[in-house]
């Protein structure tokens, strides 16, 4: 089945480049291009596309306003195309909250050597978007799940760790997970597939919404209770030991599973450094990154959770982890925070170092 794509961008050059990329794929075609949301609205009615690519900054109607109306009136998979600027990244984070499936950065048209990799990235993201479960968000949405009760034992917070990996749909899944975490929860390390320049905006947004402190990891930080550390978009994030403490480590080694940061890299480091003191969580995402690393965590004594298919935007990474036998429990996203903290409370206290 051919994936029908509509491209919306005010730049004629970007529309041309994106069209060439899409039409070069054997399983997709551009059925329309639009310079602004007003033209796009008519094209959507006419062509009924499977995926819409949308520039975040548009003339005549703001891209976010258009996205919000679209997800309310005609929900469909939307892939945002964002500029590599601070404003662009902030708008992109908001677009993901409004229901966009994923995003790509605008191509650097002056660098032809990277265009093949860029074309593969766009094609992969369009394929993932075409299979995504769309969950429109609106101002009428129900209340956010409450923050869970504090852990009773301070030793549980200081000895245990929560290690999270995600990809497509993960920004919202991570937000929902972290917003339920109490201020004394164990330290959390997160690998989310996201390019450089966007992870800092992602961390700032989460920090403003959550009871815990959320920051982009810089390497060498002591991992503290009530804090979450997000892998920067340019590097792998690893867990390491320094004496009696857990610390973060940043490495710019080659991509793993085509990703840097890679979930496998983080999970494997947690297996080695924390063993049974870690709890692994794999969330929505395209591909298989994290599955093998989560199995290593399980073999090292960690207890692992996977998001279930019904609540995933893309059931790729959790499915692969489940198929490998890496997950102990599979549950909906809304239930995962409580299950993780429940397990930690039941198995807390001063665990043995490994």
Can you walk through the features of this model?
One of its GO terms (cellular component) is cytoplasm. The chain is α/β, with parallel strands linked by helices and 354 residues long. The protein folds into two domains: 3-130, Response regulator (Rossmann fold, 3-Layer(aba) Sandwich); 154-346, Rossmann fold (3-Layer(aba) Sandwich). Helices cover 36% and strands 21% of the residues. The chain contains twelve helices and 14 strands. It has helices at 12-23, 37-47, 63-73, 86-98, 115-130, 154-159, 170-178, 199-209, 263-273, 291-299, 317-323, 336-346; strands spanning 3-8, 28-34, 51-55, 78-82, 102-105, 161-166, 187-192, 213-216, 227-230, 236-242, 245-251, 278-282, 303-307, 329-331. α10 crosses α11 (317-323). Mean pLDDT is 90; it is low at 138-142 and 350-354.
Secondary-structure blueprint of this entry?
Layout: E1 3-8, H1 12-23, E2 28-34, H2 37-47, E3 51-55, H3 63-73, E4 78-82, H4 86-98, E5 102-105, H5 115-130, H6 154-159, E6 161-166, H7 170-178, E7 187-192, H8 199-209, E8 213-216, E9 227-230, E10 236-242, E11 245-251, H9 263-273, E12 278-282, H10 291-299, E13 303-307, H11 317-323, E14 329-331, H12 336-346
Parallel strand pairs: 1-2, 1-3, 3-4, 4-5, 6-7, 6-12, 7-9, 8-9, 12-13, 13-14
Antiparallel strand pairs: 10-11
What keywords describe this structure?
single chain; Rossmann fold; 2 domains; 5-stranded parallel β-sheet; EC 3.1.1.61; Protein-glutamate methylesterase/protein-glutamine glutaminase; protein-glutamine glutaminase activity; protein-glutamate methylesterase activity; chemotaxis
């Amino acid at each position: 089945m051919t994936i029908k794509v509509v491209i919306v961008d005010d730049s004629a050059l970007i529309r041309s480049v994106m069209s060439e990329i899409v039409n070069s794929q054997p399983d997709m075609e551009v059925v329309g291009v639009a310079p602004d949301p007003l033209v796009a609205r008519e094209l959507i009615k006419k062509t009924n596309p499977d995926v819409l690519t949308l520039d975040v900054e548009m003339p005549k109607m703001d891209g976010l306003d258009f996205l919000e109306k679209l997800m309310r009136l005609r929900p469909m998979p939307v892939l945002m195309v964002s500029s590599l600027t601070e404003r662009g990244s902030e708008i992109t984070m908001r677009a993901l909250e409004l229901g966009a499936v994923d995003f790509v950065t605008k191509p650097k048209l002056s660098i032809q050597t990277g265009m093949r990799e860029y074309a593969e990235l766009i094609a992969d993201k369009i394929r993932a978007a075409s299979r995504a479960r769309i969950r429109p968000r609106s101002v009428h949405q129900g209340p956010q799940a409450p923050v869970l009760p504090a852990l009773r034992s301070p030793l549980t917070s200081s000895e245990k760790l929560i290690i999270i990996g995600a990809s497509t749909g993960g920004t919202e899944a991570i937000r929902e997970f972290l917003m339920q975490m109490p201020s004394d929860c164990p330290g959390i390390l997160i690998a989310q597939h996201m390019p450089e320049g966007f992870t800092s905006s992602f961390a700032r947004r989460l920090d403003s919404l959550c009871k815990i402190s959320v920051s982009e990891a810089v390497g060498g930080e002591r991992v503290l209770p009530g804090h979450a550390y997000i892998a920067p978009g340019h590097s792998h994030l690893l867990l390491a030991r320094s004496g009696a403490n857990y610390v973060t480590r940043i490495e710019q080694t080659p991509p793993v599973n085509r990703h840097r940061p890679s979930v496998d890299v983080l999970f494997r480091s947690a297996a080695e450094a924390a063993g049974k003191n870690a709890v692994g969580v794999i969330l929505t995402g395209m591909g298989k990154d994290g599955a093998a690393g989560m199995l290593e965590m399980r073999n090292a004594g960690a207890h692992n959770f996977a998001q279930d298919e019904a609540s995933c935007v893309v059931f790729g990474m959790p499915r692969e982890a489940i198929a490998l036998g890496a997950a102990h429990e599979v549950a909906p996203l809304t239930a995962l925070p409580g299950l993780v903290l429940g397990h930690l409370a039941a198995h807390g206290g001063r665990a043995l170092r490994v």
